[in-house]
Design goal:
The protein is mostly beta strands. 0% of the residues lie in helices and 51% in strands. The relative contact order is 0.15.
Length: 140
């Protein structure tokens, strides 16, 4: 994965294995935080005003955290894809996705978290398992 920060400056904050480029406010408008939110819950969740976007530098993964007006977490999304080396002719090797997982969560006004998960266990078949759940805590 490219280690160049998204905004092409050297302002980068490292959080363990994740790096967080300092992004201009206009870039945070690109966060599509409502994409997987069911219509019935749109008025029940807290709208994030600020986002922190972190990218894993060794594998294809990212994490986005959203914060409300009190700087409390109200949105989070984690995505990653695992790959394996493959070969067609034992001379040319390439990486092929084998597993993918997405977790997206929204804090609701009653302080519970609505969590959406999508798991693709066999990438070649393209079958995704999707489900929603509720939790008293934000997923980690």
């Amino acid at each position: 994965m490219d280690k160049t920060p998204i905004n092409h400056t050297q302002d980068t904050v490292w959080h363990g294995r994740f790096r967080a480029p300092r992004r201009p406010a206009r870039d945070t408008q690109d966060v599509r935080w409502q994409d997987d939110l069911p219509q019935a819950y749109k008025d029940l969740v807290i709208v994030p005003l600020r986002f922190e976007i972190l990218h894993e530098y060794e594998i294809l993964a990212n994490r986005t955290n959203g914060y409300d007006e009190n700087e409390q977490a109200c949105y989070c999304a984690y995505r990653f894809v695992l790959t394996s080396l493959r070969s067609d002719d034992d001379e040319m090797f390439y990486e092929e996705p084998t597993y993918a997982e997405t977790t997206v969560a929204w804090r609701m006004r009653d302080e519970r978290w609505l969590i959406y998960r999508q798991i693709v266990g066999n990438y070649a078949l393209g079958v995704a398992h999707r489900f929603y759940s509720l939790s008293n805590t934000m997923p980690r």
